[in-house]
Protein backbone atom coordinates (compact mmCIF):
# COMPACT_ATOMS: atom_id res chain seq x y z
CA UNK A 1 0.00 0.00 0.00
CA UNK A 2 1.38 3.38 -0.98
CA UNK A 3 1.79 5.98 1.74
CA UNK A 4 1.39 8.83 -0.72
CA UNK A 5 -2.14 7.98 -1.79
CA UNK A 6 -2.79 8.11 -5.53
CA UNK A 7 0.36 8.10 -7.65
CA UNK A 8 1.22 11.65 -8.77
CA UNK A 9 1.61 12.14 -12.54
CA UNK A 10 5.23 12.16 -13.72
CA UNK A 11 6.51 15.71 -13.64
CA UNK A 12 7.03 17.28 -17.08
CA UNK A 13 10.66 18.29 -17.49
CA UNK A 14 11.04 22.04 -17.79
CA UNK A 15 13.59 24.83 -17.80
CA UNK A 16 13.10 28.29 -16.38
CA UNK A 17 14.41 31.30 -18.25
CA UNK A 18 15.08 34.91 -17.46
CA UNK A 19 15.91 37.82 -19.76
CA UNK A 20 17.55 40.72 -17.92
CA UNK A 21 19.81 43.67 -18.60
CA UNK A 22 23.51 42.83 -18.64
CA UNK A 23 25.99 44.67 -16.46
CA UNK A 24 29.75 44.79 -16.29
CA UNK A 25 29.96 41.46 -14.42
CA UNK A 26 28.57 39.74 -17.50
CA UNK A 27 31.47 40.78 -19.74
CA UNK A 28 33.42 37.46 -19.60
CA UNK A 29 30.31 35.53 -20.65
CA UNK A 30 29.41 38.11 -23.32
CA UNK A 31 32.93 37.82 -24.71
CA UNK A 32 32.65 34.02 -24.92
CA UNK A 33 29.20 34.25 -26.52
CA UNK A 34 30.40 36.70 -29.18
CA UNK A 35 33.27 34.35 -30.00
CA UNK A 36 30.88 31.41 -30.36
CA UNK A 37 28.72 33.55 -32.62
CA UNK A 38 31.74 34.39 -34.80
CA UNK A 39 32.46 30.66 -35.07
CA UNK A 40 28.84 29.93 -36.03
CA UNK A 41 28.92 32.61 -38.74
CA UNK A 42 32.34 31.46 -40.00
CA UNK A 43 33.66 34.94 -39.30
CA UNK A 44 36.31 34.41 -36.62
CA UNK A 45 38.78 36.38 -38.78
CA UNK A 46 36.73 39.48 -37.90
CA UNK A 47 36.79 38.76 -34.16
CA UNK A 48 39.00 41.18 -32.24
CA UNK A 49 36.85 42.12 -29.23
CA UNK A 50 38.49 41.88 -25.81
CA UNK A 51 36.88 41.83 -22.38
CA UNK A 52 38.42 45.24 -21.82
CA UNK A 53 37.03 46.80 -25.02
CA UNK A 54 33.56 45.37 -24.36
CA UNK A 55 33.60 46.59 -20.79
CA UNK A 56 34.61 50.16 -21.57
CA UNK A 57 32.28 50.61 -24.55
CA UNK A 58 29.17 48.75 -23.33
CA UNK A 59 29.37 49.44 -19.59
CA UNK A 60 30.81 52.89 -18.97
CA UNK A 61 30.19 54.84 -15.77
CA UNK A 62 27.53 56.15 -15.39
CA UNK A 63 25.68 53.32 -17.14
CA UNK A 64 24.06 53.88 -20.52
CA UNK A 65 20.28 54.24 -20.56
CA UNK A 66 18.80 50.97 -21.88
CA UNK A 67 17.43 51.14 -25.44
CA UNK A 68 18.71 54.73 -25.75
CA UNK A 69 22.27 53.59 -26.37
CA UNK A 70 24.11 50.24 -26.64
CA UNK A 71 22.06 47.69 -24.71
CA UNK A 72 22.82 44.05 -23.89
CA UNK A 73 20.20 41.58 -22.69
CA UNK A 74 21.31 38.33 -21.04
CA UNK A 75 19.35 35.07 -21.29
CA UNK A 76 19.73 32.87 -18.22
CA UNK A 77 18.35 29.40 -17.53
CA UNK A 78 17.79 27.44 -14.35
CA UNK A 79 16.35 24.09 -13.31
CA UNK A 80 14.14 25.85 -10.75
CA UNK A 81 11.93 28.96 -10.85
CA UNK A 82 13.95 32.18 -10.96
CA UNK A 83 13.23 34.86 -8.41
CA UNK A 84 14.40 38.34 -9.29
CA UNK A 85 16.61 40.04 -6.74
CA UNK A 86 16.09 43.66 -5.76
CA UNK A 87 18.94 44.72 -8.05
CA UNK A 88 17.02 43.38 -11.03
CA UNK A 89 14.25 45.93 -10.58
CA UNK A 90 16.69 48.76 -10.89
CA UNK A 91 16.17 52.32 -12.03
CA UNK A 92 17.41 51.34 -15.46
CA UNK A 93 13.89 50.50 -16.43
CA UNK A 94 13.92 47.01 -17.88
CA UNK A 95 12.10 44.57 -15.67
CA UNK A 96 13.43 41.03 -16.13
CA UNK A 97 11.16 38.62 -18.00
CA UNK A 98 10.81 35.11 -16.60
CA UNK A 99 9.27 32.10 -18.33
CA UNK A 100 8.86 28.35 -17.86
CA UNK A 101 9.59 26.28 -20.95
CA UNK A 102 8.42 22.65 -21.10
CA UNK A 103 11.01 20.20 -22.44
CA UNK A 104 10.44 16.88 -24.15
CA UNK A 105 13.29 15.43 -22.13
CA UNK A 106 15.97 16.56 -19.76
CA UNK A 107 19.32 17.08 -21.45
CA UNK A 108 22.79 18.12 -20.48
CA UNK A 109 24.48 21.45 -21.16
CA UNK A 110 28.18 20.52 -21.48
CA UNK A 111 29.17 24.20 -21.15
CA UNK A 112 27.08 24.92 -18.05
CA UNK A 113 30.07 25.46 -15.76
CA UNK A 114 31.88 27.71 -18.26
CA UNK A 115 28.76 29.87 -18.60
CA UNK A 116 27.80 30.11 -14.92
CA UNK A 117 25.96 33.36 -14.30
CA UNK A 118 27.65 35.98 -12.09
CA UNK A 119 24.27 36.25 -10.33
CA UNK A 120 24.85 32.79 -8.77
CA UNK A 121 21.93 30.56 -7.71
CA UNK A 122 22.95 27.91 -10.23
CA UNK A 123 21.89 30.20 -13.10
CA UNK A 124 23.58 29.55 -16.42
CA UNK A 125 23.90 32.07 -19.26
CA UNK A 126 22.39 30.62 -22.44
CA UNK A 127 22.49 33.58 -24.81
CA UNK A 128 22.44 37.32 -25.35
CA UNK A 129 21.08 40.10 -27.50
CA UNK A 130 22.82 43.40 -28.33
CA UNK A 131 20.84 46.35 -29.68
CA UNK A 132 20.93 50.16 -29.98
CA UNK A 133 18.74 52.96 -31.35
CA UNK A 134 18.62 53.68 -35.04
CA UNK A 135 16.58 56.28 -36.91
CA UNK A 136 14.12 56.30 -39.78
CA UNK A 137 14.17 59.68 -41.47
CA UNK A 138 11.17 58.70 -43.63
CA UNK A 139 9.16 58.14 -40.44
CA UNK A 140 10.91 60.92 -38.49
CA UNK A 141 11.20 58.51 -35.59
CA UNK A 142 13.78 56.41 -33.77
CA UNK A 143 13.81 52.65 -34.03
CA UNK A 144 15.87 49.84 -32.53
CA UNK A 145 18.54 47.93 -34.38
CA UNK A 146 19.40 44.45 -33.14
CA UNK A 147 23.06 43.82 -33.88
CA UNK A 148 23.28 40.33 -32.33
CA UNK A 149 20.93 37.66 -31.17
CA UNK A 150 22.56 34.43 -30.07
CA UNK A 151 21.53 31.31 -28.14
CA UNK A 152 24.10 28.63 -27.27
CA UNK A 153 23.71 25.35 -29.15
CA UNK A 154 22.31 23.33 -26.19
CA UNK A 155 19.36 25.69 -25.87
CA UNK A 156 18.33 26.28 -29.46
CA UNK A 157 14.96 25.41 -31.01
CA UNK A 158 13.12 26.14 -27.73
CA UNK A 159 11.90 29.62 -28.65
CA UNK A 160 14.49 31.50 -26.59
CA UNK A 161 15.77 33.61 -29.48
CA UNK A 162 12.22 34.63 -30.22
CA UNK A 163 11.71 35.53 -26.55
CA UNK A 164 14.66 37.93 -26.65
CA UNK A 165 13.63 39.51 -29.94
CA UNK A 166 10.04 39.83 -28.70
CA UNK A 167 11.31 41.55 -25.55
CA UNK A 168 13.03 44.17 -27.71
CA UNK A 169 9.98 44.52 -29.97
CA UNK A 170 7.83 45.08 -26.87
CA UNK A 171 10.14 47.84 -25.63
CA UNK A 172 10.27 49.40 -29.11
CA UNK A 173 6.48 49.39 -29.46
CA UNK A 174 6.05 50.90 -26.00
CA UNK A 175 8.64 53.58 -26.69
CA UNK A 176 6.83 54.61 -29.87
CA UNK A 177 9.61 53.43 -32.17
CA UNK A 178 8.82 53.17 -35.86
CA UNK A 179 10.54 49.86 -36.42
CA UNK A 180 12.90 47.15 -35.23
CA UNK A 181 15.55 46.03 -37.68
CA UNK A 182 18.35 43.47 -37.84
CA UNK A 183 20.32 41.60 -40.48
CA UNK A 184 20.38 38.00 -41.61
CA UNK A 185 22.72 36.09 -43.94
CA UNK A 186 20.86 35.25 -47.16
CA UNK A 187 21.91 31.57 -46.94
CA UNK A 188 20.44 31.16 -43.45
CA UNK A 189 17.01 29.98 -44.61
CA UNK A 190 15.99 28.71 -41.16
CA UNK A 191 16.62 32.13 -39.65
CA UNK A 192 14.74 33.88 -42.47
CA UNK A 193 11.69 31.63 -42.01
CA UNK A 194 11.86 32.20 -38.26
CA UNK A 195 12.00 36.00 -38.61
CA UNK A 196 9.19 36.07 -41.19
CA UNK A 197 7.13 34.01 -38.77
CA UNK A 198 7.61 36.79 -36.25
CA UNK A 199 6.12 39.32 -38.65
CA UNK A 200 9.33 40.73 -40.11
CA UNK A 201 9.88 41.55 -43.74
CA UNK A 202 13.23 40.68 -45.38
CA UNK A 203 14.28 43.52 -47.69
CA UNK A 204 15.73 42.04 -50.89
CA UNK A 205 17.34 45.14 -52.46
CA UNK A 206 19.43 46.82 -49.79
CA UNK A 207 23.12 46.02 -49.37
CA UNK A 208 25.42 47.06 -46.54
CA UNK A 209 28.47 49.20 -47.38
CA UNK A 210 31.35 49.04 -44.92
CA UNK A 211 34.40 51.27 -44.59
CA UNK A 212 36.84 49.78 -42.10
CA UNK A 213 40.52 49.08 -41.32
CA UNK A 214 43.14 51.00 -43.28
CA UNK A 215 40.56 52.35 -45.70
CA UNK A 216 38.86 54.08 -42.77
CA UNK A 217 42.09 55.24 -41.13
CA UNK A 218 42.99 57.20 -44.27
CA UNK A 219 40.17 59.61 -43.51
CA UNK A 220 41.64 60.65 -40.15
CA UNK A 221 44.07 62.92 -42.00
CA UNK A 222 42.66 66.33 -42.87
CA UNK A 223 42.44 67.23 -46.49
CA UNK A 224 43.71 70.65 -47.48
CA UNK A 225 41.06 73.24 -46.90
CA UNK A 226 41.17 75.05 -50.20
CA UNK A 227 38.93 77.89 -49.06
CA UNK A 228 41.09 78.64 -46.06
CA UNK A 229 39.82 78.88 -42.53
CA UNK A 230 39.07 82.05 -40.64
CA UNK B 1 44.39 102.05 -74.02
CA UNK B 2 43.13 100.05 -71.08
CA UNK B 3 43.23 101.67 -67.66
CA UNK B 4 43.56 98.33 -65.91
CA UNK B 5 46.87 97.33 -67.44
CA UNK B 6 47.14 93.72 -68.70
CA UNK B 7 43.83 91.95 -69.13
CA UNK B 8 43.15 89.71 -66.10
CA UNK B 9 42.42 86.04 -66.92
CA UNK B 10 38.74 85.14 -66.94
CA UNK B 11 37.72 84.07 -63.48
CA UNK B 12 37.00 80.34 -63.13
CA UNK B 13 33.44 79.86 -61.93
CA UNK B 14 33.31 78.27 -58.50
CA UNK B 15 30.97 77.48 -55.66
CA UNK B 16 31.83 77.56 -51.97
CA UNK B 17 30.54 74.84 -49.67
CA UNK B 18 30.22 74.36 -45.96
CA UNK B 19 29.38 71.24 -43.95
CA UNK B 20 28.13 72.05 -40.46
CA UNK B 21 26.02 70.54 -37.71
CA UNK B 22 22.29 71.06 -38.13
CA UNK B 23 20.17 72.60 -35.42
CA UNK B 24 16.46 73.00 -34.85
CA UNK B 25 16.21 75.93 -37.29
CA UNK B 26 17.17 73.56 -40.11
CA UNK B 27 14.14 71.32 -39.62
CA UNK B 28 11.98 72.72 -42.47
CA UNK B 29 14.83 72.22 -44.95
CA UNK B 30 15.63 68.76 -43.56
CA UNK B 31 11.98 67.81 -43.94
CA UNK B 32 11.96 68.94 -47.59
CA UNK B 33 15.25 67.13 -48.28
CA UNK B 34 13.97 63.85 -46.79
CA UNK B 35 10.88 64.12 -48.97
CA UNK B 36 13.00 64.65 -52.09
CA UNK B 37 15.07 61.63 -51.08
CA UNK B 38 11.93 59.51 -50.75
CA UNK B 39 10.92 60.62 -54.26
CA UNK B 40 14.37 59.73 -55.62
CA UNK B 41 14.22 56.26 -54.03
CA UNK B 42 10.61 55.73 -55.22
CA UNK B 43 9.61 55.23 -51.59
CA UNK B 44 7.20 58.11 -50.90
CA UNK B 45 4.69 55.56 -49.55
CA UNK B 46 7.02 55.16 -46.56
CA UNK B 47 7.28 58.92 -45.93
CA UNK B 48 5.43 60.02 -42.80
CA UNK B 49 7.95 62.36 -41.10
CA UNK B 50 6.63 65.74 -39.98
CA UNK B 51 8.58 68.84 -39.00
CA UNK B 52 7.33 68.28 -35.48
CA UNK B 53 8.51 64.65 -35.27
CA UNK B 54 11.91 65.52 -36.73
CA UNK B 55 12.31 68.42 -34.35
CA UNK B 56 11.50 66.49 -31.18
CA UNK B 57 13.54 63.40 -32.03
CA UNK B 58 16.61 64.99 -33.65
CA UNK B 59 16.84 68.24 -31.70
CA UNK B 60 15.73 67.70 -28.12
CA UNK B 61 16.79 69.96 -25.28
CA UNK B 62 19.57 69.69 -24.18
CA UNK B 63 21.03 68.92 -27.62
CA UNK B 64 22.34 65.44 -28.42
CA UNK B 65 26.10 65.02 -28.47
CA UNK B 66 27.22 64.85 -32.13
CA UNK B 67 28.22 61.38 -33.33
CA UNK B 68 27.17 59.90 -29.96
CA UNK B 69 23.50 59.97 -30.89
CA UNK B 70 21.41 61.03 -33.91
CA UNK B 71 23.45 63.58 -35.85
CA UNK B 72 22.53 65.68 -38.88
CA UNK B 73 25.08 67.50 -41.03
CA UNK B 74 23.92 70.25 -43.37
CA UNK B 75 25.60 71.02 -46.69
CA UNK B 76 25.39 74.69 -47.66
CA UNK B 77 26.57 76.45 -50.79
CA UNK B 78 27.32 80.07 -51.59
CA UNK B 79 28.62 82.13 -54.51
CA UNK B 80 31.18 83.73 -52.20
CA UNK B 81 33.60 82.39 -49.56
CA UNK B 82 31.81 81.31 -46.39
CA UNK B 83 32.96 82.69 -43.08
CA UNK B 84 31.98 80.74 -40.01
CA UNK B 85 30.18 82.71 -37.33
CA UNK B 86 31.03 82.29 -33.68
CA UNK B 87 28.05 79.97 -33.20
CA UNK B 88 29.58 77.52 -35.66
CA UNK B 89 32.54 76.85 -33.39
CA UNK B 90 30.28 75.76 -30.59
CA UNK B 91 30.92 73.38 -27.72
CA UNK B 92 29.26 70.62 -29.70
CA UNK B 93 32.60 69.76 -31.17
CA UNK B 94 32.18 69.64 -34.94
CA UNK B 95 34.04 72.40 -36.65
CA UNK B 96 32.43 73.32 -39.98
CA UNK B 97 34.32 72.28 -43.09
CA UNK B 98 34.55 74.77 -45.93
CA UNK B 99 35.68 74.11 -49.49
CA UNK B 100 35.89 75.83 -52.86
CA UNK B 101 34.71 73.74 -55.79
CA UNK B 102 35.57 74.78 -59.35
CA UNK B 103 32.71 74.57 -61.81
CA UNK B 104 32.87 74.09 -65.57
CA UNK B 105 30.15 76.68 -65.93
CA UNK B 106 27.80 78.71 -63.80
CA UNK B 107 24.36 77.19 -63.56
CA UNK B 108 21.09 77.99 -61.89
CA UNK B 109 19.57 76.28 -58.85
CA UNK B 110 15.81 76.58 -59.44
CA UNK B 111 15.12 75.64 -55.80
CA UNK B 112 17.54 78.15 -54.28
CA UNK B 113 14.85 80.30 -52.67
CA UNK B 114 12.96 77.31 -51.24
CA UNK B 115 16.16 76.01 -49.67
CA UNK B 116 17.50 79.29 -48.28
CA UNK B 117 19.64 78.60 -45.21
CA UNK B 118 18.36 79.87 -41.85
CA UNK B 119 21.90 81.19 -41.34
CA UNK B 120 21.23 83.87 -43.97
CA UNK B 121 24.10 85.46 -45.96
CA UNK B 122 22.64 84.12 -49.20
CA UNK B 123 23.57 80.58 -48.17
CA UNK B 124 21.51 77.81 -49.74
CA UNK B 125 21.08 74.30 -48.35
CA UNK B 126 22.17 71.74 -50.95
CA UNK B 127 22.03 68.48 -48.99
CA UNK B 128 22.28 66.67 -45.69
CA UNK B 129 23.62 63.58 -43.97
CA UNK B 130 22.04 61.77 -41.02
CA UNK B 131 24.08 59.33 -38.92
CA UNK B 132 24.22 57.72 -35.48
CA UNK B 133 26.45 55.31 -33.56
CA UNK B 134 26.26 51.58 -34.16
CA UNK B 135 28.28 48.78 -32.57
CA UNK B 136 30.43 45.92 -33.80
CA UNK B 137 30.44 43.15 -31.24
CA UNK B 138 33.12 41.28 -33.19
CA UNK B 139 35.40 44.32 -32.80
CA UNK B 140 34.06 45.27 -29.37
CA UNK B 141 33.90 48.85 -30.60
CA UNK B 142 31.37 51.47 -31.66
CA UNK B 143 31.06 52.56 -35.26
CA UNK B 144 28.98 55.09 -37.15
CA UNK B 145 26.01 54.23 -39.31
CA UNK B 146 25.03 56.67 -42.04
CA UNK B 147 21.28 56.46 -42.51
CA UNK B 148 20.98 59.15 -45.21
CA UNK B 149 23.23 61.01 -47.54
CA UNK B 150 21.50 63.28 -50.01
CA UNK B 151 22.48 66.11 -52.36
CA UNK B 152 19.84 68.05 -54.30
CA UNK B 153 19.80 67.43 -58.02
CA UNK B 154 21.33 70.79 -59.03
CA UNK B 155 24.47 70.05 -57.02
CA UNK B 156 25.17 66.42 -57.84
CA UNK B 157 28.32 65.05 -59.51
CA UNK B 158 30.51 67.73 -57.88
CA UNK B 159 31.88 65.56 -55.07
CA UNK B 160 29.64 67.00 -52.37
CA UNK B 161 28.23 63.64 -51.25
CA UNK B 162 31.75 62.35 -50.91
CA UNK B 163 32.71 65.42 -48.86
CA UNK B 164 29.94 64.70 -46.36
CA UNK B 165 30.74 61.00 -46.12
CA UNK B 166 34.45 61.80 -45.76
CA UNK B 167 33.61 64.22 -42.94
CA UNK B 168 31.89 61.40 -41.06
CA UNK B 169 34.70 58.95 -41.82
CA UNK B 170 37.18 61.49 -40.44
CA UNK B 171 35.22 61.84 -37.20
CA UNK B 172 34.85 58.06 -36.94
CA UNK B 173 38.56 57.47 -37.45
CA UNK B 174 39.45 60.12 -34.89
CA UNK B 175 36.98 58.72 -32.35
CA UNK B 176 38.54 55.25 -32.68
CA UNK B 177 35.47 53.72 -34.30
CA UNK B 178 35.87 50.32 -35.90
CA UNK B 179 33.88 51.08 -39.01
CA UNK B 180 31.46 53.32 -40.90
CA UNK B 181 28.51 51.62 -42.51
CA UNK B 182 25.55 52.56 -44.67
CA UNK B 183 23.19 50.90 -47.15
CA UNK B 184 22.77 51.10 -50.88
CA UNK B 185 20.08 49.79 -53.23
CA UNK B 186 21.54 46.96 -55.33
CA UNK B 187 20.24 48.53 -58.57
CA UNK B 188 22.03 51.83 -57.90
CA UNK B 189 25.24 50.92 -59.74
CA UNK B 190 26.52 54.52 -59.84
CA UNK B 191 26.29 54.76 -56.06
CA UNK B 192 27.99 51.38 -55.59
CA UNK B 193 30.90 52.38 -57.84
CA UNK B 194 31.17 55.69 -55.99
CA UNK B 195 31.25 54.04 -52.56
CA UNK B 196 33.77 51.41 -53.67
CA UNK B 197 35.93 54.24 -54.96
CA UNK B 198 35.89 55.67 -51.45
CA UNK B 199 37.33 52.42 -50.05
CA UNK B 200 34.08 50.79 -48.93
CA UNK B 201 33.23 47.15 -49.36
CA UNK B 202 29.67 46.17 -50.40
CA UNK B 203 28.60 43.06 -48.44
CA UNK B 204 26.74 40.71 -50.79
CA UNK B 205 25.20 38.25 -48.29
CA UNK B 206 23.50 40.30 -45.59
CA UNK B 207 19.82 41.24 -45.82
CA UNK B 208 17.90 43.66 -43.63
CA UNK B 209 14.94 42.35 -41.63
CA UNK B 210 12.32 44.90 -40.63
CA UNK B 211 9.48 44.64 -38.12
CA UNK B 212 7.20 47.65 -38.41
CA UNK B 213 3.59 48.87 -38.44
CA UNK B 214 0.92 46.57 -37.05
CA UNK B 215 3.33 43.65 -36.88
CA UNK B 216 5.43 45.65 -34.43
CA UNK B 217 2.46 46.99 -32.46
CA UNK B 218 1.41 43.43 -31.61
CA UNK B 219 4.45 43.09 -29.38
CA UNK B 220 3.39 45.95 -27.12
CA UNK B 221 0.96 43.61 -25.40
CA UNK B 222 2.47 41.52 -22.62
CA UNK B 223 2.36 37.79 -23.04
CA UNK B 224 1.27 35.78 -20.03
CA UNK B 225 4.15 35.20 -17.72
CA UNK B 226 3.87 31.45 -17.18
CA UNK B 227 6.40 31.37 -14.36
CA UNK B 228 4.54 34.03 -12.40
CA UNK B 229 6.12 37.20 -11.13
CA UNK B 230 7.28 37.77 -7.59
TrEMBL record, chains A, B:
Domain of life: Eukaryota
Annotated N-acetyltransferase domain residues: 72-221
Pfam family, one: Acetyltransf_1
Transmembrane feature ranges: none
Alphabetized GO MF terms: N-acetyltransferase activity
Gene3D superfamilies linked: 3.40.630.30
Keyword Phosphoprotein assigned: no
Keywords for the protein's UniProt record, in alphabetical order: Acyltransferase, Transferase
Protein name per UniProt: N-acetyltransferase domain-containing protein
Provenance organism: Dendrobium chrysotoxum (Orchid)
High-level lineage: Eukaryota, Viridiplantae, Streptophyta, Embryophyta, Tracheophyta
